[in-house]
Amino acid sequence: MFFNKIHFLALLALLCSVVACVDQDFDEPPGAVEVDLPSNLISIAELKAKHVEGQFERLEEDAAIRAVVIADDESGNYFKTLILQDESGGIELKINSTALYNEFPIGREIYVLVKGLYLGDFAGNTQLGGVLFNDDGEQRLGGIEDIFVDDFIIKGESDKPITPNIITIDALNESHIHTLVELKDVQLFIQDVDIPYADAVNRFSTNLRVEECDGDLITLRSSGFADFADDAPPAGNGSLIGVYSVFNSTKQIFIRNTDDVLMTGERCDVDDFEEQEDTERITIEDLRRDFRWGTTVGPDSTRIEGVVISDRASENITNRNMVIQDEDYGVVVRFEESHDFDLGDKVAVVISGASIDEFNGLLQVNVENSRVRELSDFDIVTPRTVTIAEILDDFEDFESTLVKIENATISSSDGTSYSGSTTVTDATGSMVMFTTSYSSFASNLFPTNEVTITAIVGQGTEDQIAQLSIRNLDDIEGGEVEVPEDDPFNVTFTGQLSFEVANVDGWQNISMKGADTNTWIARDFGGNSFIEARGFNNDNDEIEAWFISPELDFDTLSNISFETAIAFWTHEGLSVLLATDYDGSNIAGATWTELDGTTLADASNEDYIWVPSSVSLAAYAGKGHIAFRHTGDNSTNTGTSRIDNIVIE
After folding, report:
1. Residue 412, Ramachandran bin (φ over 0: left; ψ between -120 and 50: alpha; else beta)
2. Is the pLDDT of residue 18 over 50?
3. Position 215 confidence tier, pLDDT thresholds 50, 70, 90
4. pLDDT of 575-619, one tens digit each?
5. What pLDDT is stored for residue 9 in this prediction?
6. How confident is the model over 213-226, as a mean pLDDT?
7. 195-219 burial, b for 16+ CB within 10 Å, e for fewer?
8. Which structural domains are found in the chain, ordered by start?
9. What is the DSSP code string of 543-558?
10. Residue 299 in 3-state DSSP?
11. DSSP label at 259?
12. How far, in Å, CA of 225 to CA of 77, rounded?
């Protein structure tokens, strides 16, 4: 029947060329060339049955598949690829060409002559392509070359959409791979709300999690080259249409464009999980092993139990995370919202259907707060006494567990406080210890001689494979802290407590407008201490904070140097002033003038980049004071000013 249609269209095209017919249906198949279509039509399922996973098969049978394009490359979410489907299933067709949607748009019926093509697979998905090639010693399946497309593909009728199969996540199986499906009553996992489909800047693909109201999860994967990559999916509940795929054992769905996402209704409350007594306990070792084998969703009716070894009270860990450890193994538990579990609490975590993934290489279980129950308070985890070499040699087993390192020293090239990355060294080696600048002890100085360190083993960036994290200062035993004496003429702010009002001998820290506490506060970032004033997140309508030097003798001093930085760029609120008639108390009654020759950070500088300034004092005589003043408010002039390394000589 199809053979006769092609001959008919060829005759019609010839007649039109004679009588100057105008063909306005550009989607109809070309009829200038007669095509002998094989009589042997096979289904996609029959074609895929010829493939052995991990192998490549060159197809020698004079056969063809007839299918409809259900996904093309128009949006950029697919590249050099068409997804085809017939009544029996779906398959990915690789073509080494772009803008395929012009010839083979969604809804186009096509015939693929399979003789001479190859079958292969990727991560559990069968593919059909045109060539095999060598990729750094590995054989790969490539697409049909552009010049040969017409030899293998015949266009049929257009506008033949396939109705998506309405199905649940749990029911998806191998037979649904590369077919169009529709998931009902789904929504973004709460932690993925407001995250874009993909990274449009770096062109990285992104995985977002979509959940059904009964808690089942599937990965929504999108390419960084998609034209919708920078958009965020709607945060409501509804339906999601897309092409089902897998990545090994992970269920995935790819949308064709944002019209496939219809999640604008009211979100559902994901059902609370099975009661604890209805779940089977697995060990954290089981959980970690299963993840290495490809498990990314918690098995049905399961839980883990452990003791909280992290300390939210010290704020060296975000209050949405905690680390738990059972007999020998540990894992990070990440919550939807802030949790209230303390160091030493024994808890049960129901992981049925929970997302299990890695963040910067660190394994974590993502759960709603209601999935975690306290079993007892208080329990003790005894840290394993180990060397740094032992940690680095067997890092995966030590990850998220409590260890003790004896006869260790702490050092840093950036300063003497815990904040940021420091180095812990014992007789066997060295590794990083990281402390967030928001922790309660970030600005505290670490001991300079040997100590015993109790810490959680974690993981940082790719080039910082393993790292330690102490819970609080009780984790450091022994050693002595060398506290530098304040020098009002050489102020580095070392030892100031982060987020506390800066207190430097000889200097005044005064709020002229706003609350008495609306002054310069100490901060610490990456081991560097400084002070800052800001309107951002400030409760006061007007802000005017002064940091005033002790009395200076300009006849004996020649220079002042310092560094400044800004952020939020909404205004430049920092000025450096000098007065020779300030009496030490009446700021408003003194005559303050701008200090000539200063170089201050401004909107031309990137956020938090330090700008040095060195100013001669030769033009001034007698005695006086120098002041750093920040002005602003909490609505429009919310910029932040920072000061560091003041040297007067």
Report:
1. beta
2. no
3. low
4. 999 999 999 999 999 999 999 999 998 888 888 899 999 999 999
5. 36
6. 87
7. bbbbbbeeeeebbbbbbbeebbbbb
8. 37-155 (2.40.50.200), 165-265 (2.40.50.140), 276-377 (2.40.50.140), 384-477 (2.40.50), 490-648 (2.60.120.200)
9. EEEEEEPPPEETTT--
10. coil
11. G
12. 7
Strands 302-308 and 321-325: antiparallel
> Which of these, 203, 158, 186, 159, lies nearest to 242 by C-alpha position?
186
pLDDT of residue 636: 73
Dig out the tokens for 476 from the structure. 């450091």
460 compared with 100, residue with greater pLDDT: 100
d(CA 537, CA 433): 30
For the full predicted model, state whether its pTM sits above 0.85: no
Return the CA Rg of the chain: 33
Q: What integer best gives the mean pLDDT of the chain?
A: 86
**Please, are residues 491 and 459 in contact by the beta-carbon 8 Å criterion?**
no
SS (H, E, C) 42-80: CCHHHHHCCCCCCCCEECCCCCEEEEEEEECCCCCCCCC
Query: In the structure encoding, which two tokens stand for residue 392, read together?
Result: 């680095």
* 360: its two tokens: 């910067």
Residues paired with residue 236 on neighbouring β-strands, in sequence order: none
Q: Which residue has the higher pLDDT, 29 or 245?
A: 245
Quick check: 302 and 279 in contact, CB under 8 A? yes
